[in-house]
Q: What sequence folds into this?
């Protein structure tokens, strides 16, 4: 073989290697874009699941008032707070309810109920979360002269796990 022939073979080898490396880099770029879109889709699915769960929870027997729809019975909710039996029942990161009107402050416990403003119903301890919320009626029964239902405006916040 001549030097010119060896040079042509070497040149062809480098070109084939360069084209091969280019296609590997292009493939990795396309793969990273697809993976990012997959994470966004997974987060969107988690958000939609949280919205559906918030609608279900408000109407579920564990939370629902006997008197109306989209109403949370705070008497039931104060009993449900931090129950570990519901850990696998609610596939969310956390459930919190805040009293919006009339304005009240402080976390609710059995000792200060109903003079409180926030209920930490459930917390899985998962750190990477986002949330969705909805306004609800917070109702409770009181007995003054007769049994009365008192309703206030509240906001339920459902935290969901994010992947990205």
A:
């Amino acid at each position: 073989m001549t030097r010119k022939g060896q040079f042509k073979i070497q040149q062809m080898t480098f070109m084939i290697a360069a084209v091969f490396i280019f296609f590997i880099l292009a493939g990795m770029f396309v793969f990273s874009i697809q993976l990012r879109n997959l994470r966004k889709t997974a987060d969107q699915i988690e958000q939609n699941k949280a919205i559906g769960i918030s609608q279900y929870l408000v109407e579920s027997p564990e939370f629902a008032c006997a008197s109306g729809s989209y109403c949370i019975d705070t008497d039931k909710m104060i009993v449900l707070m931090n129950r570990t039996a519901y850990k696998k029942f609610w596939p969310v990161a956390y459930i919190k309810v805040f009293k919006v009107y009339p304005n009240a402050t402080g976390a609710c416990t059995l000792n200060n109920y109903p003079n409180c403003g926030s209920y930490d119903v459930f917390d899985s301890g998962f750190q990477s979360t986002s949330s969705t919320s909805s306004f609800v009626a917070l109702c409770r029964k009181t007995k003054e002269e007769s049994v009365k239902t008192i309703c206030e405006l509240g906001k339920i916040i459902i935290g969901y796990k994010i992947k990205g």
Q: What stands out?
A: The chain has a mean pLDDT of 84. The longest helix spans residues 3-59. The longest strand covers residues 129-143. The chain has one domain: 38-161.
